[in-house]
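Note to self: keep these together.
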Amino acid sequence: MDKKITIAIDGFSSTGKSTLAKQLARYLGYVYVDTGAMYRAVTLYAMQNGLIGEDFFNREGLIEHLDDITLQFLYNPVLEFAEMYLNEENVEKEIRTLAVSQLVSRVAEVPQVRHKLVEQQKHMGEKKGVVMDGRDIGTVVFPNAELKIFMNATPETRAQRRFKELTGLGQEVTYDEVYKNVVERDYIDTHREDSPLVKADDAIEMDNSNITKQEQLQKVIDIVDKLLAE
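Structure:
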């Protein structure tokens, strides 16, 4: 089918946005862009360069270094998705740690960071045929996207999913640590001045607390197929 659309998936942390976006992109043969990975990579850069830590954040220092940060997605045919590269180094594993998760919302609050990454994201989706997930895709990056999904689930459900993911990767974390991180990120993401996490007026909200990934995917595929048939 020649018709292509833009799909924007927003929502709270650990709602499975990236999983759904990857599945949809694979089904449609679309480009998948994980905007969260971009913010995580900038956060990792800040950590590596002593610009942010648990009890400090040199915002001006990070802003001054933004031109030194190059982000790139390179497709991994074995994993069947694009991995995040920071200044030509594969950092896909490093950006998924709890340490990065605990700081990323603070970095994402910085307007200069958001503006830099939003500009790149808009460029990635110029030709449509893209599935992009994040916090402000349907409201800021692609306000005219043909399909907007807003994902939600209870904090307890999301913390349990994230805890299982992190321990599965061999990281030593507790459920309480992960739950606290989920709640803190929710607050920061929804209260920041620049592009806060909100549901777009024309977005379809999906609470996946009690449905399987496959059930969720099928629901969205049915919506997409109807849009493409119009």
